[in-house]
């Protein structure tokens, strides 16, 4: 059996749903993350990367186990024992880019607008500062105006638009690349 340690809560906040917790995922969260992925996918929100199928429970557990916490991490937002938001981050490997991490985030429709996305990104900022990172970045589908608004409110700046960058069936959509500097990073 894989290790099932419980990560300490990075942050807690009150929302219209009650107390929400943000923390790094553990292998014990794999079934909850899989439920989240099923629900998120069923909502049909257009994201940059959409996979043909969902991982198996074992695949998700293995994926979480391989997250080293130093260069790759997954954060979950929990409403009681239900994952309602998830963020995956990875630090670039090349030495010239190791000060930067990229991430993707998703929140269930029922919990959007309740601070979950902001909380997950707040956890990412804390994690990034602890690792001496100077920059975090993301790519978002240009039609996802709600997410773009959130990123702007949090301090992300648009760096470029890639016209027709992703294909959805017979049509092509633009994506926007956004980034922000990480202030207060611990020296490497």
Question: What does this molecule look like?
Answer:
The chain is an alpha+beta fold. It has a single domain (9-181), classed as Aminopeptidase. It is built from four helices and eight strands; from the N terminus they run ββααβββαβαββ. It has an eight-stranded mixed sheet, sandwiched between helices. Strand 5, helix 3 (116-130) and strand 6 (135-141) form a beta-alpha-beta unit. The chain is globular and about 40 Å long. It starts with 8 loop residues before the first strand and ends in a 7-residue tail after the last strand.
Task: Please render the helix and strand layout as text.
Elements (H helix, E strand, L loop, with lengths): L8 E7 L2 E7 L5 H14 L13 H10 L5 E8 L2 E10 L8 E8 L8 H15 L4 E7 L3 H9 L3 E12 L2 E11 L7
Parallel strand pairs: 5-6
Antiparallel strand pairs: 1-2, 2-3, 3-4, 4-5, 6-8, 7-8
Give the helices and strands as they follow along the chain.
EEHHEEEHEHEE
> For the largest beta sheet, what order do the strands appear in spatially?
1-2-3-4-5-6-8-7
What's the number of domains? 1
Determine and state the CATH class: Alpha Beta
- What is the average per-residue confidence, as pLDDT, rounded to a whole number? 88
Shape, principal axes of CA atoms: globular
Largest sheet: 8 strands, mixed
Q: How many helix segments?
A: 4
Question: How many β strands by DSSP?
Answer: 8
Decide which structural class fits the backbone.
alpha+beta
């Amino acid at each position: 059996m894989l290790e099932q340690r419980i990560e300490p809560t990075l942050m807690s906040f009150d929302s219209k749903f009650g107390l929400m917790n943000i923390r790094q995922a553990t292998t014990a969260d794999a079934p909850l993350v899989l439920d989240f992925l099923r629900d998120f996918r069923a909502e049909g929100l257009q994201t940059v990367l959409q996979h043909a199928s969902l991982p198996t429970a074992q695949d998700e557990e293995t994926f979480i186990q391989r997250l080293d916490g130093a260069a790759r991490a997954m954060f979950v937002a929990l409403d009681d024992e239900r994952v309602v938001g998830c963020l995956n981050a990875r630090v670039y490997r090349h030495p010239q880019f190791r000060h930067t991490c990229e991430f993707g985030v998703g929140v269930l429709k029922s919990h959007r607008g309740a601070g979950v996305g902001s909380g997950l990104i707040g956890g990412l900022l804390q994690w990034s500062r602890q690792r001496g990172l100077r920059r975090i970045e993301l790519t978002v589908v240009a039609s996802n105006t709600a997410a773009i608004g959130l990123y702007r409110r949090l301090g992300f700046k648009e760096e470029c638009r890639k016209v027709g960058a992703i294909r959805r069936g017979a049509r092509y959509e633009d994506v926007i690349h956004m980034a922000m500097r990480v202030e207060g990073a611990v020296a490497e």
